[in-house]
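Deliverable D2.4 — example input (structure tokens):
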């Protein structure tokens, strides 16, 4: 396979797969105002039900990454596509707040192993110097999922109801399963029916010095998971997700509270920050790969996101239009950090623990996706509007940015390795 074809073969299929996952995870943000009324949930109960997804999400993170590393990322994701499709569609059938809470928890379990398995898959196909871009192009699915699905979801809500929305979008994983099975291979060398051009160079590039031994004992894996770098990433990702998911799940409700909007208008308006986010993700990750620098490409967008979100709160009453522009820029800055962030573990940790480490970081870090929405719901209930809640989200993003400055980056090691490979080819 021509090396450039990796980008056209792997990224688009993984991209669409995770768009579907992200739609099924986040479509309740638009449905939540209607669901809260029908299922008789107050703001705190709705925030808890939206966020409990992440308690289920943590259960398969480390096992999913471990199985992807030792068995097959392709097969792990294939099984989970079926599981999460069943759970997502079933969420549209619930009749009580407790039933909604339960299905969100099960959906979290179902989607839990997908992220670390995909991180392992991309590490198998892309060299360290390419990974910020590979991660960013794949993770563009997050803002793109919102941009695509928000107007459509808003239209479905206006035309039918939230049950039709959740059931219809829950069917999508089954439709994509066959494409995933036919198209994806675990490694370039095992891509069926293809001859890998430049095989010698790519094999060297995909086995950097951080790779170490192919296998390690269970105790060595556990020691690596207790490494300072991993624990710092866990804390950073926790605060990042507190801010990011609090923003994601409650922004439509905050917009609706400011002004009466139709479901379609709300969906279109909600998609604007994520359209900007896609542009910033691509630019920041490309710049990170070009300079071979990670920490500042993570820290500065997060610090900026915290500042912009705080500024949007301060301008919400006197200048609502400026406030909305600042909210859009805050969301774009938040997402811009993700590509370089997920390049750090694959570059700075031993290769045989990357899957498990990514699972741990994503598992514990994503609990911020529970506490963020819960905190917003509780603060909204306590103070009567969303301003104090969004101040708390801005502080959380600023903390994540500060922690990013304390990470060690593997880019210096990667740069030396890439230079060595280039010399070897001349």
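Example output (designed residues):
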């Amino acid at each position: 396979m021509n090396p450039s074809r990796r980008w056209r073969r792997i990224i688009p299929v993984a991209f669409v797969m995770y768009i579907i996952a992200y739609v099924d995870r986040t479509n309740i943000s638009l449905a939540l105002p209607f669901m809260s009324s029908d299922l008789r949930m107050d703001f705190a109960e709705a925030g808890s039900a939206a966020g409990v997804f992440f308690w289920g999400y943590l259960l398969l993170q480390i096992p999913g990454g471990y199985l992807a590393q030792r068995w097959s990322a392709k097969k792990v994701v294939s099984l989970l596509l079926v599981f999460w499709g069943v759970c997502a569609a079933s969420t549209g059938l619930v009749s009580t707040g407790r039933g909604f809470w339960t299905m969100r928890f099960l959906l979290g379990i179902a989607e839990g192993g997908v992220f670390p398995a995909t991180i392992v898959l991309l590490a198998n196909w892309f060299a360290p110097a390419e990974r910020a871009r590979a991660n960013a192009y794949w993770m563009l699915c997050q803002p793109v999922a919102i941009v695509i699905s928000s107007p459509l979801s808003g239209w479905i809500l206006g035309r039918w109801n939230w049950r039709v929305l959740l059931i219809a979008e829950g069917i999508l994983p089954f439709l994509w399963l066959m494409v995933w099975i036919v198209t994806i291979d675990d490694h370039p060398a095992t891509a069926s029916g293809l001859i890998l051009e430049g095989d010698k160079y790519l094999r060297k590039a995909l086995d950097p010095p951080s790779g170490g031994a192919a296998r390690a004992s269970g105790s060595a894996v556990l020691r690596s998971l207790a490494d300072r770098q991993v624990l710092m990433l866990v804390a950073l990702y926790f605060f990042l997700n507190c801010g990011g998911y609090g923003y994601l799940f409650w922004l439509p409700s905050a917009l609706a509270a400011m002004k009466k909007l139709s479901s379609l208008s709300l969906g279109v308006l909600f998609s604007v920050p994520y359209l900007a986010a896609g542009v910033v993700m691509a630019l920041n990750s490309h710049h990170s790969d070009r300079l071979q620098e990670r920490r500042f490409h993570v820290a500065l967008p997060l610090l900026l996101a915290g500042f912009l979100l705080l500024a949007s709160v301060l301008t919400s009453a006197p200048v609502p239009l400026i406030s909305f522009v600042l909210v859009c820029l805050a969301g774009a800055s938040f997402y811009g950090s993700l590509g370089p962030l997920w390049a750090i573990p694959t570059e700075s940790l031993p290769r045989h623990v990357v899957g498990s480490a990514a699972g741990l970081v994503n598992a514990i870090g994503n609990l911020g996706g529970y506490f963020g929405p819960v905190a917003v719901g509780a603060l909204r209930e306590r103070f009567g509007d969303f301003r104090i809640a969004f101040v708390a989200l801005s502080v959380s993003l600023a903390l994540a940015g500060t922690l990013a400055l304390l990470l060690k980056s593997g880019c210096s090691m990667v740069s030396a390795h890439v230079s060595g490979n280039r010399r070897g080819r001349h």
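The chain has one domain: 11-195+224-425.
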